[in-house]
Design goal:
Chain lengths: 449, 265
């Protein structure tokens, strides 16, 4: 190599000259200043939603209601804080004109949503909205929906989902329903009915008449069907119920008791416990063939199976180790691993729809906790604590949990109050879900297709 | 032919080498005076970590201020001492309120060490854990706690001529406006870098989110990036309090928003 360089001095000089020019022209490289921001604030994003505009009174009325429902949804998530409309400087933000961002910044707004409603000739409504980033002064999203006027609430939920998703990156969970057990009557003679409602408590209706005791309802992926435990004819069995058609059928005909059912992620199977002669094990039933297979065979009580979202593993609780703890296994029943090792007992595990966590109920020193841990059992965090918190269920985006809480009303336990609560995964923003009666065993539906 | 090939190859290799290792900084200004940096290191302790060691001493108010005066004698201009007493008093009050029950201890250093480890505890994670909260009885929300203590990794980087305290000042300014995406999936991986172009008066002329590719394909990253961008653009946290004489060094810089520490992971 050196040989060639020596022989071609001319080339070498050209090369050296080139390097020299390069070095002279390029500004000296200096490590650029870099500042790490490792702390911030955890507070809701200030958001302004003026009433959606319209020309006719019907349009304005619906516009007002939609803006209200969207704001209530977003505020309930705990991630957003509505700005008082009295503070608005720009009162009416027309759809096709850029908002006066400075006016919104002054009152502390970071995100602005404006919208308009138009009644079309065919009697349907066209609802349009825009989401603005006030700081960056740009539109983040704009969508339009067409719907029947009496379907405005659903549109409001869809808009909430769109905004939530755009601002957090997470899918929304506002266009969902919750099924639960409505309880009424004396503690000694409790009437328990299946009830369903929108996630915000609207559109409430009962699905059963209360003649039979029902427990642990669970939604299918399409939110059309539910499985639950019913004491029909005083025999506890798992039933499948179609919400739309009202058809109800028993799953399997076993001599013993079946309970704790849950759909597989693709709705093709149902996992449940089957108890016979004092021993309960976990079975999976195929819904099309109605054949079932046994996953566990242990003299201990194995129950509360819940599928991972990929359908490959199941988490359940068992007292095989002496106390009630959480275990995971493959859907074939192999690779059984204990994952809970904290103090106390663990039950009702539910795998998060996003797969990263398992929610559970923990009982320790006569107190109840709702907590989460990673599927390998690490990173346990307890989110709530009370006299009795139980039965966690995930919002479809895996960010919020709903559970029921029993608050003692007196020493005899007759006036206890049982209500549904929701809590964010961060452990903040605990809220009661409004229900007309006492409520337990909630199950959150997937996003309604 | 062959010669041409060799010299061309050489040229390419040398360009690659230059591209990889960078051009030597031949014209880097020569900073000989190390003392201001030392002084600044003292100052930073007033601004940030000072309150922790001081409260356990019986009457901490005077000591730090005396210390500061001597420390700042060489070059600190008048405005610096003025706000400082306020800060110290307030910080001392805060810290006393928090720390008096656990430790009224004397000086020794090994004993001071555990304290800094203990103080960040309430902020170690914004994710609530009931057990931890039970031990402490304080039910203060993370929203209020978070902005108060700004703990940045303290690395001394001689290539930047902004002192640590000046960098800390920017940190505290920006972090007040940054709403952290705590509940997002894998939030600890959502590190957002924003290149900032600053006017001489400290206002931000332009800010660019780096890694726009990831923004387009990752919705979580996009929302994290946008929340960081909002913090930079927020007028409440602007203009940046930076020394005008060092404009050359901060006219462009990169802000790296990293929520990892807040999540306690």
């Amino acid at each position: 190599m050196i040989y060639y360089i020596k022989r071609n001095e001319k080339d070498l000089w050209v090369f050296v000259l080139f390097l020299f020019i390069f070095v002279c022209l390029v500004t000296p490289a200096r490590a650029e200043l870099r500042i790490d921001i490792t702390r911030g604030v955890v507070e809701p994003l200030p958001i302004a939603i003026p009433d959606f505009l319209g020309k006719r009174s019907l349009e304005r009325e619906v516009g007002q209601k939609i803006a209200f429902v969207v704001l209530s949804n977003l505020e309930r998530s705990g991630l957003f804080q509505g700005i008082d409309p009295n503070a608005f400087i720009e009162k009416n933000v027309a759809l096709n004109i850029q908002p006066r961002f400075a006016d919104w910044r002054v009152i502390g707004t970071q995100a602005l949503i404006n919208g308009g409603i138009k009644l079309l000739r065919n009697g349907r409504l066209r609802v349009e909205f825009r989401l603005w980033d006030v700081m960056a002064e740009q539109q983040m999203q704009g969508l339009a929906y067409k719907t029947k006027p009496d379907n405005w609430r659903r549109v409001a939920h869809k808009i909430s989902d769109a905004i939530y998703q755009r601002l957090t990156g997470e899918t929304g969970y506002f266009d969902t329903r919750v099924i639960y057990i409505a309880e009424s009557g004396l503690a000694t003679r409790r009437v328990k009915r299946l009830a369903v409602m929108d996630q915000d408590g609207e559109g409430h209706r009962f699905l059963t008449d209360g003649e039979t005791l029902v427990l642990t309802p669970r939604f299918s992926k399409t939110a059309q069907k539910i499985v639950f435990l019913s004491y029909y004819l005083d025999i506890p069995r798992v039933y499948l119920f179609d919400i739309e058609t009202g058809v109800q059928e028993r799953l399997g005909d076993y001599p013993g008791m079946t309970f704790a059912p849950r759909f597989s992620p693709d709705d093709s199977e149902v996992a449940m416990s089957y108890a016979q002669n004092g021993n309960s094990d976990i079975y999976i039933m195929n819904l099309s063939t109605r054949s079932s297979r046994r996953l566990t065979s242990n003299p201990a009580i194995d129950t509360s199976p819940s599928f991972a979202p990929d359908g490959k593993r199941i988490v359940f609780n068992s007292d095989r180790g002496g106390s009630q703890q959480l275990y995971t296994m493959s859907v074939s029943g192999r690779n059984i691993r204990r994952i809970s090792f904290g103090k106390g007992r663990y039950g009702t595990p539910v795998w998060s729809p996003r797969g990263d966590l398992i929610a559970f109920t923990k009982i320790y020193q006569n107190r109840f906790f709702i907590g989460v841990m990673k599927p390998d059992g690490s990173g346990e965090r307890l989110l709530t604590e009370s006299f009795r918190d139980e039965g966690p269920t995930w919002a479809p985006n895996g960010r919020v949990l709903m559970f029921f809480r029993q608050t003692p009303g007196g020493p005899d336990g007759l006036n206890d109050r049982i209500r549904l609560y929701s809590i964010d995964l961060t452990g903040h923003n605990e809220r009661e879900v409004v229900t007309p009666l006492d409520a337990s065993d909630p199950a959150w539906s997937p996003v309604i297709p | 032919m062959r010669n041409g090939f060799v010299s061309s190859a050489l040229l390419h290799v040398s360009i690659l080498i230059v591209a990889y290792y960078g051009v030597p900084a031949l014209f880097e200004p020569d900073f000989t005076d190390d003392h201001p940096i030392v002084v600044d290191l003292v100052t930073i302790s007033h601004k940030t970590s000072l309150p922790k060691p001081s409260p356990p001493q019986e009457k901490p108010k005077r000591e730090p201020s005396a210390e500061r005066q001597t420390a700042s004698l060489p070059e600190t201009p008048a405005p610096v001492p003025a706000p400082a007493p306020k800060r110290t008093k307030k910080a001392v009050k805060d810290m006393l309120a928090k720390l008096t029950p656990p430790k009224p201890r004397p000086k020794p250093k090994p004993k001071l060490k555990p304290k800094p480890a203990k103080v960040p505890d309430p902020f170690a994670s914004v994710l609530k854990t009931v057990e931890k909260l039970r031990q402490k009885e304080t039910k203060t929300s993370a929203a209020k706690l978070a902005p108060q203590v700004i703990h940045a990794p303290r690395r001394f980087d001689p290539s930047t001529t902004l002192s640590l305290s000046e960098m800390d000042a920017i940190r505290s300014q920006i972090s007040r406006c940054w709403i952290v995406p705590v509940g997002a999936r894998n939030a600890e991986d959502l590190v957002v870098n924003i290149k900032v172009y600053v006017n001489p008066d400290g206002t931000i002329r332009k800010a660019t989110i780096l890694d726009r590719d990831r923004m387009n394909r990752d919705a979580f990253f996009r929302s994290a990036a946008e929340s960081a961008y909002r913090a930079v653009k927020n007028k409440e946290c602007s203009p940046l309090r930076l020394p005008p004489e060092k404009y050359e060094y901060w006219k462009t810089f990169t802000l790296s928003f990293n929520p990892k520490e807040m999540l306690g992971t």
